[in-house]
Amino acid sequence: MTGLTAELVVDGRTPQTPALAPNGQLLCYVLAPVSRTGDHLDTELWLVDTDCAAASHRATTDTAAESRPRWSADSAMLFFLSDRADRGIPQVHRLPLADGAAAAVTNWRAGVVDYLPLADPNLVALLAQDEPTEQDARRARDRDDAVVVGEREPRARLRLLDLHTGRVTTPDVFGDRHVVELRQRPDGGALAVLTQASSDNDYGLRTGQLHLFDTTTGTAVDLGAVGADAHSLAWWPGEDGWHLGYIALTPPALQAGTAVFDLAVGSRVLRNRTSGLPMCPTELHQTDAAPLIVFADGLNTTLARLDPTGPTTLSQHPGRLDDLTTTPTGEKIAALTGTRYQPANVHVGPPSGPLRKITDTRPELDGIALGTQQPLAYRAADGLDLDGLLVLPVGKSASDSPFPLVTIVHGGPYDRYADRCQLFWFPSAQWLATAGYAVFLPNPRGGQGHGHQFASRVAGRVGQEEWTDILTGIDLLITEGVADPDRLGIAGGSHGGFMSAWAVGQTDQFRAALVVAGVIDWGMLAATGENGQFEAALGGSTGWSGVGPHPHDAVSPISFASRVRTPVLILHGAEDTNVPLGQSVYFHRALRHFGVEHEFVIYPREGHSIRERNHQLDVLRRTRAWLDRWLRP
């Protein structure tokens, strides 16, 4: 077997957003590189026959960012977004399968954000911002570009494209609201439209409204407010008429706990259809009949049908099942899934399973030695059932222990570790297992996969019970002899970065720490991050919550910086708007003030995720070198 290198990790290509043709015969997917080498992320569209063993073939040949493949109702036409004509400005294209010649059908100067082919074969609904005016162009030339917050904010609006004439019209029905999602009724009737008051993530999160739009008359009906972070619209018929569903956060939560909500359109009665379930809905998908629901279920995934009596389980899948696509009848589905030792590929089959792999996009990983991965189940100090994963060093078994142990905490916190292949461009379990580390991947409370109550337990209490959940798992691995108590490391990104920074302010038992785009001060994040209300719910307060000290001070790592003795590696993207760079600057200055051994690395041009190839290589090599320095001298 060959060894794993950083280049093998970042130079791969991954499938994304599969789209089944309505007749179920063909499937289109996006093939995207793990890393970017130029100014643009060039992606490709590929086609594969779902019923035979023929290899995938590329559908387009241009160098471009291609995305969002969608099919016409007769399966004869493939639509997609591409910026081949003007990089960074995506337009809708269509590709007739009969001749294979793709052509743009829009030339909207602001670009198209999203689109939906409608039942009328001559109509496509578009989501696009307003085109720039001559005044906008003049102001840009003259650098008269002062930004008045709240004025002229970019908003996606509903527009209709007539494929015969190429004309784009903008119905004046939603005022100045920002349109985020569309879904047409299966019978070709009304268009469900989800809007927000603004494109501002912080403000828009709680301002969602549902509408019905009639494409024939151009009129709209308001269906009222929806839950925070609503998405995944889906229609279905019921005995009492049409129902319209979506996934949203369960009130009054603002940081976690999704549910499927069912609105009876005629009576306007709204119900939570997943209340009390010990799993969390992640996707809702429309068919001609009952919709399908994807559930995060512990370390694995459950696929269910939403029947009148509630969700009915159809199949269960190891690890994750993402980007589900289905034929209109719901008799055939496709999704991205993999195994513990194989990265995700497109799989197809009936919703009851089993699913068959029809792509192989990472053949270069065949034969690469990986560490043994196993699920863990244990109980928290207060008796709460918890789970996680343990990955052993490559070529080792439990009998070879104890090992240096690195605990990697997931982000979110409303996320989870699933029992899938743990190999990514950021410090991941298999990358460290190759270097001789055992890796613990905990799923503490506050995460996804165990229902609403489990997820909501960290609101205003970050770093409290979720931290002891993690410690309990580490202590268990020490007791069982797997982990060497004198060679412990901790790492994480985003909320996981918060937990890593929090850990070294609470205990000296870790010999090294990695903090990647971590939260250091919850009050500052609520004031400057792009999801302020979300962060305020987690931290428990804001800086404007009266005269301090504030509740968030007691759960912010910066408050405990004077206690830190552990060497810390801090990594952050310079253009991060989710967790702004100032968070890491704050931590760096505090550690420098107290004389703590640390290294602070800033990646230019990068946001919350690191995308450029050289930067990803640096992250992989630098983080492993840092751990080797302190845990494997």
Automatic annotation (TrEMBL):
GO molecular function: aminopeptidase activity; serine-type endopeptidase activity
Residue ranges the record marks as coiled coil: none
Organism in which the protein naturally occurs: Amycolatopsis arida
Name of the featured protein: Dipeptidyl aminopeptidase/acylaminoacyl peptidase
Pfam families: Peptidase_S9
Biological processes, Gene Ontology terms: proteolysis
All copies of domain Peptidase S9 prolyl oligopeptidase catalytic, residue ranges: 429-631
Keywords in alphabetical order: Aminopeptidase, Hydrolase, Protease
Matches recorded under InterPro entries: 6-blade_b-propeller_TolB-like, AB_hydrolase_fold, Peptidase_S9_cat
Family annotation (Gene3D superfamilies): alpha/beta hydrolase, TolB, C-terminal domain
Keyword Hydrolase in annotation: yes
